[in-house]
């Protein structure tokens, strides 16, 4: 290391090829003080880029200390480019989709839509732009291909989170909602998304929810909206009903408050009336098969029978009470050994014996605190209590016990099941736990002889006949036996054939303030429901200062006394308004239609506009909305189709679920009870050990594992989690944009991997695409000037491109086009990176090559592309420039690799034209450095040439004189 007195002076670094940063000579690092000299030159370059330049640089202790400071050198001036072009797009409304009467409807349309966001106070994190970037690339690509593109954005802004925040802070939800929307909009604009902001909508605006209310009235007219008393998830602390998905482990997902099941009179939508159509029309959709299968399972169509079991009196006599069960396996009816009623079954109280009444009531209370999910899928240990009563099996006359168990839901089927423990896993577990008999009635060659395990498959029926009932299904296959049982129960009046659905009617009321008012009143005279006339819509929310739960179960809107008191619009008599509001799902069911015609005050959507723009061509969003949102939207769309509002049976032609971006990998070390580190692979039950987070700089990789740097024997747990504030792993896109630019963030999110896969965020990974953009910039604009700025023009020249350049460009065009159309955005970026690497080797950069490349780049990195387009001499935006098309003439390889054999043995290869003849191929082989050593001075006996396949050169073998062993001996003696 040089001493503090050593001084070196040098001039500005020489800029080599346009776009090259300073790099030391190859031998520089072998010279004394080379590393420090190189660092100081980089420091001088850094100072130059930052706007000041020393006349010389002195290597001293002070300079060495200064060099330790982090000096950020921008790879290109994104901080100037991006705000300028965002302002240009805003000022010129560049991405405004013209109204229907302004566009050329003979052109194809492309409607690309994001599942619009809920604008929370936290703003965006880097996971949100993943889908938005994908749709933006598609929108920009299609505009350049000549499509009329509809690419809108809006806000799903009603709902519980805003109301809870209002309660906690005392701020009206309208104020916080507007503030949150403003923040989201600013963040989205900072990322350069080409949304048509003229079509922006919010579900909270009366002009919008007027039409949500109008749709409700149409449902009411068709008998698809009704009121019923149903068991619901009631959260006393939140003062509202919650959907099953909003309850986790018996508490509310938001706030963690206890939730109970209780009956309440609620508005319901009869989605079950459309179950078959919702199921059948899935087949024609271009959706992920996994999503379609989830919807099929949610609808849960099954065919079977309803069978009645007569309840017995204390002395074993039949009563007039009958328990109806639904079964998909009538063939197993002889194997029924008990019945199960759901805790909320309406007949339960009348069939419980006096001795069991308290036990059953206690059990019902416990069950009311569980969600449907806990009671079914998540519950490992089955629980239940005996009712004290029995019922009669109609096919064999046996008396079987009636149990109460929460693994049966009151909302599915009839709320009662016939339990066949020999042939159902849940029933088998329950029977073993409570010592209930198990009767085998189905057998199969596929099953083992182990009668300790249930067999749920079909097979041959056994032990299934009764002389009393006259029913005998022994020896029949399951399907044939089931049909015979159904025929018997229908003939004897003990049941009937039945098609059933897992799908339940949609619970459509919420005890909240921040939601769409339901447009009905109830007459004070008779309680009759009266719809508000359509001409009086929207029914707007009243202003309330107190949105807290009432504590009585009445919704917060009941506090708006003067609003609640009204008159019956049909009679003029006193009436009261509905104080429940619609769920958050309501506004998001149909918003895609409003984007087609957002300012229409007389219609939900103009018929001509809907027929042109519908359906949505590509709909991108998270898989968490795979069932409910998509199913509800499809239901409403079909109702609107039936009443002539829309022209298509389905709302979304193609659905794409983007993957989740997980937070950065976190490293955890296990510690024993004494606080000592223990290796994760030696810990049997990690729950018995404490875990401590380890900073990344203290971690190193060893093989496929991560270990402590200071103690490699300690293997760590490396895991990435979904981004959340509670884990502290949320990455704010504003920070990324500030450091690397919006185009880098867009490119990185697309480059991380396939769109549909989940990915792990790695901030250091963004530097790769950031460098690529910097290299692309300098390739075209050139190196920075002495003051750190760049020339206003480019280094592109008006010269004819070479064949090699044309081939490279058109291969890139073909690859990028194919990958965008297939939404394989990561490999499209790779193709452009490869092109830039090749282009750096060229002496000159023809403008006719540069311009198509800039257009290829523009959907991905629109800010940089616009700036480059401008510097290439264009005065208008490139947003509507034709997307480059690959010329097939430049995609064909005119040269091939030809193997060359010498005497039948492959010795190398040569590059030849496809049309190359034998003489030219031999000449090229003779000139090849590797092959020439085999040919020089040799006599060619024969050449075998197969065009495009092989060249085999047969050489004359050299003559060898045969010497006898006697001559050899004599020679040695000499």
UniProtKB/TrEMBL annotation:
Entry keywords, A to Z: Aminoacyl-tRNA synthetase, ATP-binding, Ligase, Nucleotide-binding, Protein biosynthesis
Signal sequence range: none
Enzyme class, first EC level, given as a word: ligase
Keyword ATP-binding belongs to the record: yes
Reaction equation(s) it catalyzes: tRNA(Leu) + L-leucine + ATP = L-leucyl-tRNA(Leu) + AMP + diphosphate
Residue ranges occupied by any Methionyl/Valyl/Leucyl/Isoleucyl-tRNA synthetase anticodon-binding domain in the UniProt entry: 806-913
HAMAP family: Leu_tRNA_synth_B
Protein name: leucine--tRNA ligase
UniProt organism field: Centaurea solstitialis (yellow star-thistle)
């Amino acid at each position: 290391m040089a001493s503090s007195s050593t001084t070196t002076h040098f001039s500005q670094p020489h800029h080599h090829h346009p776009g090259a940063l300073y790099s030391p000579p190859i031998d520089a690092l072998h010279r004394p003080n080379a590393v420090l000299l190189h660092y100081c030159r980089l420091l001088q370059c850094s100072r130059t880029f930052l706007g000041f330049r020393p006349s010389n640089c002195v290597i001293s202790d002070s300079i060495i200390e200064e060099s330790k400071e982090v000096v950020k050198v921008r790879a290109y001036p994104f901080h100037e480019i991006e705000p300028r072009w965002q302002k240009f797009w805003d000022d010129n409304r560049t991405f405004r989709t013209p109204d229907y009467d302004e566009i050329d409807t003979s052109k194809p349309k492309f409607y690309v839509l994001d599942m619009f966001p809920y604008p929370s106070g936290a703003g965006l994190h880097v996971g949100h732009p993943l889908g938005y970037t994908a749709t933006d690339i598609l929108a920009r690509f299609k505009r350049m291909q000549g499509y009329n593109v509809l690419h809108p954005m809006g806000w799903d802004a009603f709902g519980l989170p805003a109301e809870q925040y209002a309660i906690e802070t005392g701020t009206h939800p309208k104020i916080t909602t507007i503030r949150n929307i403003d923040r989201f909009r600013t963040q989205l604009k900072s990322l350069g998304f080409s949304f048509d902001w003229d079509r922006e909508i919010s579900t909270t605006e009366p002009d919008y929810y007027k039409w949500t209310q109008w749709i409700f009235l149409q449902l009411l007219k068709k008998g698809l909206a009704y009121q019923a008393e149903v068991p619901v998830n009631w959260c006393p602390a939140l003062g509202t009903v919650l959907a099953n998905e909003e309850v986790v482990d018996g508490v509310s997902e938001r706030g963690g408050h206890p939730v109970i099941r209780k009956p309440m009179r609620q508005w319901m939508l009869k989605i079950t009336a459309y179950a078959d159509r919702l199921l059948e029309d899935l087949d024609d959709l271009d959706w992920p098969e996994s999503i379609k299968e989830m919807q099929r399972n949610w609808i849960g169509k099954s065919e079977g029978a309803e069978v009645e079991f007569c309840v017995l009196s204390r002395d074993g006599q039949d009563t007039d009470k009958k328990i109806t069960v639904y079964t998909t396996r009538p063939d197993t009816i002889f194997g029924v050994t008990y019945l199960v009623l759901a805790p909320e079954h309406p007949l339960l109280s009348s069939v419980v014996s006096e001795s069991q009444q308290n036990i059953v009531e206690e059990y019902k209370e416990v069950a009311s605190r569980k969600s449907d999910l806990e009671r079914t899928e998540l519950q490992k240990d089955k629980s239940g209590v005996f009712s004290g009563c029995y019922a009669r099996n109609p096919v064999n006359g046996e008396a079987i016990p009636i149990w109460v168990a929460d693994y049966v839901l009151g909302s599915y089927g009839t709320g009662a099941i016939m339990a066949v423990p020999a042939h159902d896993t849940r029933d088998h577990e329950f029977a073993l736990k409570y010592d209930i008999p198990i009767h085998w009635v189905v057998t199969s060659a596929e099953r083992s002889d182990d009668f300790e395990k249930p067999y749920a498959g079909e097979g041959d029926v056994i032990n299934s006949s009764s002389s009393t009932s006259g029913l005998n299904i022994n020896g029949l296959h399951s399907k044939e036996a089931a049909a015979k049982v159904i025929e018997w129960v229908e003939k004897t009046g003990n049941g009937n054939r039945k098609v059933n659905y897992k799908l339940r009617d949609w619970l459509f009321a919420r005890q909240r303030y921040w939601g769409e008012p339901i447009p009905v009143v109830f007459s004070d005279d008779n309680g009759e429901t009266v719809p508000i006339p359509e001409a009086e819509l929207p029914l707007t929310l009243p202003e309330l200062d107190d949105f807290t739960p009432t504590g009585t179960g009445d919704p917060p809107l009941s506090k708006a006394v003067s609003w609640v008191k009204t008159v019956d619009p049909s009679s003029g008599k006193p009436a009261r308004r509905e104080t429940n509001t619609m769920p958050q799902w309501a506004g998001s069911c149909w918003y895609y239609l409003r984007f087609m015609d957002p300012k229409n005050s007389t219609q939900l959507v103009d018929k001509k506009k809907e027929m042109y723009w519908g359906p949505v061509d590509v709909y991108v969003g998270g898989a968490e909305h795979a069932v409910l949102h998509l199913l509800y939207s499809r239901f409403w769309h079909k109702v609107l189709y039936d009443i002539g509002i829309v022209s298509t049976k389905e709302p979304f032609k193609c659905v794409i679920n983007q993957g989740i971006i997980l937070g950065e990998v976190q490293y955890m070390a296990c510690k024993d009870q004494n606080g000592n580190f223990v290796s994760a692979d030696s810990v049997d039950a990690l729950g018995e050990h404490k875990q401590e987070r380890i900073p990344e700089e203290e971690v190193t990789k060893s093989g496929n594992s991560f270990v402590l740097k200071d103690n490699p024997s300690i293997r760590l747990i490396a895991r990435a989690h979904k981004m959340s504030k509670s884990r502290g792993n949320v990455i704010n896109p504003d920070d990324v944009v500030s450091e690397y630019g919006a185009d880098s963030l867009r490119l990185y999110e697309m480059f991380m991997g396939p769109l549909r896969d989940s990915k792990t965020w790695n901030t250091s990974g963004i530097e790769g695409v950031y460098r690529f953009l910097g290299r692309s910039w300098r390739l075209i604009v050139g190196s920075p000037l002495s003051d750190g700025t760049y020339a206003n023009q480019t280094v592109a020249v008006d010269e004819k491109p070479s064949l090699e350049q044309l081939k490279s460009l058109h291969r890139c065009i073909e690859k990028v086009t194919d990958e965008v159309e297939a939404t394989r955005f990561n490999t499209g970026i790779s193709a452009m990176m490869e092109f830039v690497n090749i282009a750096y080797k060229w002496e000159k950069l023809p403008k006719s090559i540069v311009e198509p490349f800039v257009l290829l780049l523009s959907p991905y990195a629109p800010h940089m592309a616009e700036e480059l387009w401008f510097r290439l001499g264009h005065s208008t935006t490139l947003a509507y420039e034709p997307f480059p098309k690959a010329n097939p003439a430049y995609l064909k390889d005119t040269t091939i690799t030809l193997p060359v054999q010498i005497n039948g043995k492959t010795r190398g290869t040569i590059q030849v034209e496809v049309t190359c003849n034998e003489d030219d191929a031999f000449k090229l082989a003779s000139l090849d450095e590797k092959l020439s050593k085999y040919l020089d001075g040799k006599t060619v006996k024969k050449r075998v040439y197969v065009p495009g396949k092989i060249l085999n050169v047969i050489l004359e073998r050299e003559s060898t004189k045969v010497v006898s062993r006697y001559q050899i001996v004599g020679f040695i003696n000499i």
